[in-house]
Amino acid sequence: PPNGNPIDTGGYFVPVQTLEEFECTAVAYDDVPSRLRATLEEHGFAVVTGVVPAAEELQALEDEFKADLMDLIDQDALADAPPGVAEAFERFCAEGPSALPLATTLGHLTQAAGFSVNRCLSQGRFAWRVRRHPRVHEVFRALFPGEGGELVTSLDLTFFTPSGQRPARRNRFCAHSDQNASDVRAGLADAETYQGVLYVWPASPDGLCSSTVVWPRSHTGVWRQMMEDGSFRQSGERGFHYSEVRVMADKERASAIADGWVSQARRGGGPPRRL
Asked: Helix or strand or coil: residue 31?
């Protein structure tokens, strides 16, 4: 892991939640109506367990993503492909998405930290099954008790990296908030905004699958300090919500926040388990 302030080094390392930290932020699906909102208000995030409780459904979700990937493969061209390509395809057919060649994935399907932004994968079967999943809707619905109307959920993209990539011990520093208190667009600056990640593969401490880095309790004091910065007031006037620590005008405060990030942020997920 790199030493020093991540604004200067460009990277950082933070550990996964300890078991004690995990238990403070974990909310079982059945407890969502009574505990989720309070947990979010205290910690700024929560790990909801049991959203997809059955191994069979997890496998069905993975199979949907496999079908999305299969649609991208020109199977007619396999007859004239080099032997290694045909063998890789057979392994993918037998083992599923985890066996998709890493070079193919990184070169043609994903960007940055496994963002599946290419080939319309975020409009595929898998993405829409997650968007429409009734238990996902129920989790978010619990955050708005008593409010009528239809709930609209969004899935920007799928995170995906097959096996073969070593666990990262260093990440590029891009700590940010996706809400700007100066956003001039109607209803966005002070809206109650929640984001979520549905894990189909376990976000375990071994680092073999992606996890989400969060700074517990930063949604109160730290976020308010960020929102006082002139750079975000200016970007908010242009209707821009994304607010990254390293672009703050107040470099001294930015450095202090970055130091706090590397000492207090955690990879969400906790002990090995399927969420």
From this structure: helix
Task: Report DSSP state, residue 82.
Answer: -
**198's tokens:** 């549905």
pLDDT digits (tens, 9 = 90+) for 114-168: 888 888 888 899 999 998 999 999 999 999 888 877 776 666 788 888 887 777 7
pTM: 0.89
SS3 177: strand
Instruction: Compute CA 133 distance to the chain's CA centroid, rounded to the nearest angstrom.
Output: 17
For the chain, the first-to-last Cα distance in angstroms comes to: 27
Residue positions counted in the chain: 275
Count Cβ atoms below 10 Å from residue 82 Cβ, excluding itself. Answer: 8
**Bridge partners, residue 214, by sequence:** 266
Strands (DSSP E) contained in 156-255 are 171-172, 176-177, 212-214, 243-244
Q: How many CA atoms lie within 13 A of 237 on its CB side?
A: 5
